[in-house]
């Protein structure tokens, strides 16, 4: 992903939040998630998945290591009684065609319309460097594995959930949003458009780089405002406002293909990470606690997102 410009928005006066009117007859207690639901996401489990993927080593698109990563993800998903579907395609990269595979896990809801929770599982190709992508790649892929377990263990949702691990998020040479980067998400959207299935995609939540020990997630201006509002409100409700400051930024990432196709989308990303795209993006700079925080916030936000889409 790439940050396009830094928009610094003055912090919202916090007391203002208390004056946000609620719909008639709805109390704060009714909209707050139970603590049991919020803690259903296990940051320690997610961190173990992250650790296992980092142990595989660098995992660029088309590599045997990425194939090994797919096998790891599939093994975990199958242990929850879910199935992994492969979506193969060829990425037309500046280095020539590369075979890539998106992974898709579906958790059927009462309706066929979908809410997507997505991330990427490839790591940036860094010639002559050992880049294991603990936050940039592994945190995202690990988060989705744990989220699959959580969603499967919850009572059936109104909407169908689809977890998608995108291949080829990283540029093969240099980031170009339309030419060299986000191969998997661009392919997914093109395939959905071809199948006239884009209207069934009600919302897309992108989780990227959420491992940072010093977790600071900013509102991305390319994301859909109502999704940002729901996620930032959820962060306040579950006590993680400090990790979701009211500051803005602008990020190019796997959500943009969906935004362009008219699918409400949000990128939950911590790009304030000095180790980004360096060999220091390793286990010592990520934490289970950060995965837990993002897990708690997303789990708390999902019922509100479903309510908005009903
Ligand atoms: Zn990256």
Would you give an account of this structure?
Helix 3 packs across helix 5, helix 3 packs across helix 9 (about 290-310) and helix 7 crosses helix 9. This protein is an alpha/beta fold. It contains 9 helices and 9 strands. The relative contact order is 0.19. It has helices at about 30, 35-40, 45-55, 65-80, 135-155, 185-195, 225-235, 255-260, 290-310, and strands spanning about 1-5, 85-95, 95-105, 115-120, 160-165, 200-210, 220, 250, 265-270. It starts with a strand and ends with a helix. The strands form 2 sheets. A 6-stranded mixed β-sheet has the order 2-3-5-4-6-9, with helices on both faces. Zinc ion (ZN) binds near residues 1, 136 and 170.
Which properties best describe this structure?
single chain; about 300 residues; alpha/beta; 3-stranded mixed beta sheet; 9 helices; 9 strands; binds zinc ion
Short description:
The chain is of the alpha/beta class and 310 residues long. The protein has helices at 28-31, 35-38, 43-56, 64-79, 134-153, 183-194, 225-237, 256-260, 288-309; strands at 2-5, 85-93, 96-107, 114-120, 160-166, 201-208, 219-220, 248-252, 265-269.
Spatial strand arrangement across the major sheet: 2-3-5-4-6-9
Percent strand equals 15-25%
Unreliable segments (pLDDT under 50, ≥5 consecutive)?
Answer: 7-35
Please tell me how large the radius of gyration is: 18 Å
Distance linking N and C termini? 31 Å
- The percent range for helix content is 25-40%
Largest sheet: 6 strands, mixed
The quaternary structure here is single chain
- Number of helical elements: 9
Catalogue the ligands: zinc ion
Sequence of secondary-structure elements: EHHHHEEEHEHEEHEHEH
Overall structural class, as computed from helix and strand content, comes to: alpha/beta
Global mean pLDDT: 91
Number of strands: 9
Morphology call: globular
